[in-house]
Specification:
The complex is a heterodimer of chains A (about 170) and B (about 250). Chain A has four helices and seven strands, in the order ααββαβαββββ. With about 170 residues, chain A is α/β, with parallel strands linked by helices. In chain A, a hairpin with a 5-residue loop joins β6 (about 150-155) and β7 (about 160-165). Chain A starts with 6 loop residues before the first helix and ends with a strand. With about 250 residues, chain B is mainly alpha-helical. Chain B is built from ten helices and no strands. Chain B starts with a helix and ends in a 6-residue tail after the last helix. The chains are: A alpha/beta (about 170), B mainly alpha (about 250).
């Protein structure tokens, strides 16, 4: 019996497979949670085109994510794959979904503020709440952390250092 | 190499050479947070360089990849500003160079976000926000060291004096790029100086530092003329790839 797969079925399969790919540096956040997955499209002929946007210019996770997307589609039986990187509009931390922010919270990484459509061109420094004890008495230790997207802070109340997702 | 490719190459070389210089600080920075910070900044610059070099290769149309351009060109074919190739010196001197250059990149990328070359505009739109973090970082250190102890002030002033003459080249118009400026692809470097100065002045005041008084203004990077320092940077950066052509991680 011949198995035929319609375009809409391929599309649904691809969407599910790609959406589940996790960021290698921030699991369990997926690339959809982070807002770096822009589009999954099936072209006539069955080619799956995945459009992504990088977070930081030099983020090494970008290449790993490309491989992981191919692997995920391969496991779903989809082998005709093209990955496109789209730079504009540039990724901002506003693109992290509510689900992404919830997962960051759970990981005790302070999510970035969501500034919305009228976001100012300049960064705004907001009070950062300690993810361990909730105190607002915190300070920045370093603007650069273990990955390009994070900074390192410390709580003056409980003394714990913690990571914060940088506003971009 | 046509002018448009050469423009992307020039900006890409700035980022590439400075990334390579900053990497020399790995495991040598004064604190582990600084090691991490400098490597993050180098990584951002390397990412910008890859985008710009890949674009230069595409615009040139001779089939050269970003790796070919980074590893297989000789010194005279590099078009970076002399400022970025200068040796690191002590931490204060590195921070002085970071401040001058990242403040320039902020102005440059801001202006290039509106470039008629969509790829340049896309790279600039993203890199602008990265440069902003780099500038903050450098300004923080210049103020902290400048307005610090007698020793730190002296070294910060010396560091600034050592790199300051090389800032003039950033704002020097380049006749090769004039048609690109006309076409909205490139920006007129001279137009960036006012914004750069108005950012820098209050930072230097806060750091209790005066802009060095000098008429020395070396130039030539954009036409492939460099200080003695660049050759050493390239030797370290390129020897592995040249000894093992096509090698990859």
């Amino acid at each position: 019996m011949a198995v035929t797969t319609s375009a809409s079925e391929i599309s649904a399969l691809a969407e599910i497979a790609v959406s589940a790919v996790e960021d290698p540096e921030l699991p369990p956040l997926t690339i959809r949670d982070l807002g770096i997955l822009r589009q999954v499209e099936v072209r006539p002929g069955g080619e799956v085109v995945v459009v992504m946007t990088p977070t930081y210019s030099g983020c090494p996770a970008t290449e790993v994510i490309g491989r992981d997307v191919r692997d995920a589609l391969d496991r779903a039986g989809l082998r005709q794959v093209r990955i496109e990187l789209k730079l504009s509009p540039a990724w901002t931390t506003d693109m992290i979904t509510d689900e992404g922010r919830r997962k960051l919270d759970e990981m005790r990484i302070v999510p970035p503020p969501c500034l919305g459509a009228g976001r100012p061109a300049q960064r705004v420094d907001l009070v950062v709440k300690c993810p361990q004890c909730g105190s607002r008495n915190t300070e920045e230790l370093s603007g650069f952390g273990s990955t390009p997207c994070k900074a390192l802070d410390r709580c003056r109340a409980c003394g714990e250092p913690f990571e914060r997702f940088k506003q971009l | 190499v046509n002018a448009q490719a050469r423009y992307a190459l020039s900006l890409g070389d700035d980022a590439l050479v400075l990334a390579q210089r900053l990497c020399e600080w790995a495991t040598r920075a004064p604190a582990i947070e600084e090691d991490v910070a400098l490597m993050n900044i180098a990584l951002d610059l390397l990412g910008q360089a890859r985008g710009l070099l890949a674009h230069a290769g595409a615009v040139e149309g001779a089939g050269r990849s970003d790796d070919d351009l980074a590893y297989l060109r000789d010194e005279r074919e590099f078009y970076n500003l002399q400022l970025v190739e200068l040796s690191n010196g002590d931490f204060a001197r590195t921070m002085a160079r970071q401040l001058l250059f990242s403040a320039y990149q902020c102005e440059l990328y801001e202006a290039l976000s509106g470039s008629t070359d969509a790829q340049i505009a896309g790279i600039a739109e993203k890199a602008r926000k990265e440069a902003d973090y780099h500038r903050d970082h450098a300004a923080h250190w210049v103020v902290r060291l400048g307005d610090g102890t007698e020793e730190s002030h002296r070294r910060m002033a010396e560091g600034l004096a050592a790199v300051w003459p090389y800032a003039a080249e950033m704002f020097e118009p380049c006749s090769l790029f004039a048609p690109l400026v006309e076409a909205g692809v490139a920006v007129d470097p001279a137009a960036l100086e006012a914004g750069w100065s108005s950012y820098l002045s209050p930072v230097l005041v806060e750091a209790t530092l005066a802009p060095p008084d000098t008429t020395f203004a070396p130039t030539g990077g954009r036409s492939g003329l460099h200080t003695e320092e660049l050759g050493y940077v390239l030797a370290e950066m390129q020897h592995l790839h040249r000894a093992h052509p096509g090698t990859q991680w």
